[in-house]
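Morning run. Coffee first, then this:
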Amino acid sequence: MRYSAFTIFSQGLTGNRGWKELWRKPEPKPSYDVIVIGAGHGMAAGYYLAAKHGISNVAVLEKSWLGSGNTGRNTTIIRSNYMMPENQPFYEHSLKLWEGLEQELNFNAMVSQRGIVNLFHSDSQRDDFVRRGNVMLMSGADAELLDEAQLRRMCPYLDFDNARFPIRGGLLQRRGGTVRHDAVSWGYARAASKLGVDLIQNCEVTGFRIDKGRCVGVETTLGPIAAGRVVSCVAGSSSRVMKNAGITLPIESHVLQAFVSEGLKPCLPGVMTFGAGHFYISQSDKGGLVFGGGLDHYNSYAQRGNLPALEDVCEGAMAIMPMLGRARLLRMWGGVMDMSMDGSPIIDETPIAGLYFNGGWCYGGFKATPASGYCTAHLLATGEPHELAAGFRLDRFRRGQLIDEKGVGAQPNLH
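And here it is:
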């Protein structure tokens, strides 16, 4: 079934009784060409394997229900305002994929390019943003430097004259914005299923089948499944899963909290970030303010956070928008982040033949979903890294070739 205005109209006339399930619910086969563990970035990888490389004998294994992991536990922001030469082209490619995703998948992912503004509060920070904006422009992305007068016209409610953190301007990327997170998983799952990819939910991987140094399949709660190639795309559970193959990763798992306020009238034009602390905020289509901040800064696999992190986020909110003090918090949640030591991801083969790894996304996992799946599919299909992910090799930490994007890894003080 192809979705369209005509389909919606015709289904409305028939009592909406003709809608079909979005994806098939197959039983796992004894073997596949490729097994993808994790249905976040992994669901995107499964789709691109079938759509771009013609490999459809693929199983995407999800230990719970689709969207139960970090894909459904984030603040939905998409952007490409990075600076490092390995990161900027990759995230710009991801943003371009976002821009055409709904048409390609024939699914409404609610891609809303309302813009993102990174505030700056000093002359030195302005100079840093000028450099970042120039890098973005050189890589083909868009960037605009806003002075205080321009920003006052755009967002008059900001606390420009805050005694500690006066707002002097901002770096604007108009193509940035937000996307409905779970709809992304549904869209990729529907499109991949139509191409023959099997999504197996409630199927947890408990081990790897390794024969003579080569991965030949996985052990799951539904039984063993053989495969020619296996890739792990399990975000915050990366260390636990890869430990089953005897691989230790340069990754730590941390909790990152997110919050939603009560519904309000439209007040934010797009995404806003605090330049003197770790705080970012946008407004959902329902009117709730969606915001978050930094890590809880202790290792954990729990999808919940602590109150000091909540206090820190609220302090950042009040520093730039005192009006938020009158809004009531509706709900909060935590996602388990796979924090690499340099703040940049890993998409690479492992020392075990036939076993590949995708992880270490830190704060950038959701916005990278299309490009991550695209480059992972290329690696699995060809055996070679995609040129956009050539710097995301696993051994870069041993070689000392870190991609230190703002030092936002788990322990940037060690860099």
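The chain has a mean pLDDT of 94. Good start to the day.
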